[in-house]
């Protein structure tokens, strides 16, 4: 059985990493995909590859460029989905950055770019998706890729962790605001997943060994590890799940001592 047959799914930052893995699984589960990407040359090229991979599965996909920090990008993603596929069933807010930096000398530009990309753009993208779902009158599913970092701190992530806590909180409040329209809002909290976002950080062998040793399952996550949890929340199997947060961290959070 395909869990997302004929559902239209928009995913931001779907050109690589977690977003790409989730997009491919959504396609395998029967969805039509809107692959959001940054609009930069590298993002466009990678997004076109993801579209080809989905077409190779005999499923449909389009790519749409737009800076996640731009408060109008959400509107453009929704417009593209509606004009190509006629509706929006699922919106996955995944695009994000984590430029590791210490707190005491945090440049204002790095702070603003992180908050604008991870949270401010997301707020209005979620609003745009919700308005479209309300107009359609058949409910929907909104999923924010938050983080274990919504729950714990990081000395080099003082600009980043508040955005992830903000996304978790946004999903909780939106679950309340949008429940009357049967629009479900949930947060997925990945642990440490090996992707481009942390390639440099995890190139430190001591840090890599520490992260592995803290993880109950003994390995870092892979982008594919997020695919099942997101598909579940997107699907009707999760029809009574809203306002929830799902840790997908291999047991990293619980492993204190
Ligand atoms: N990898 C990890 O350990 C964890 C990742 N996350 C979150 O997962 C999400 C995906 O990250 P990963 O796949 O790990 O990293 P990644 O760097 O491979 O992917 C990030 C995606 O966001 C896109 N993006 C970045 N800035 C953008 C912008 N201004 N406009 C449009 N798109 C933009 C990138 O092009 C890329 O497709 C992020 O929100 C990240 O915070 C959360 C917890 C852990
Ligand atoms: C980018 C980091 O490795 C990653 O991002 C998160 O949200 C996790 O908590 C990790 O710190």
From TrEMBL:
Pfam families noted in UniProt: adh_short_C2
Keyword Oxidoreductase in record: yes
Keywords: Oxidoreductase
Presence of the UniProt keyword Oxidoreductase in the record: yes
Record-annotated membrane-spanning stretches: none
Similarity comment text for this entry: Belongs to the short-chain dehydrogenases/reductases (SDR) family.
Protein name: SDR family NAD(P)-dependent oxidoreductase
Organism of this sequence: Commensalibacter oyaizuii
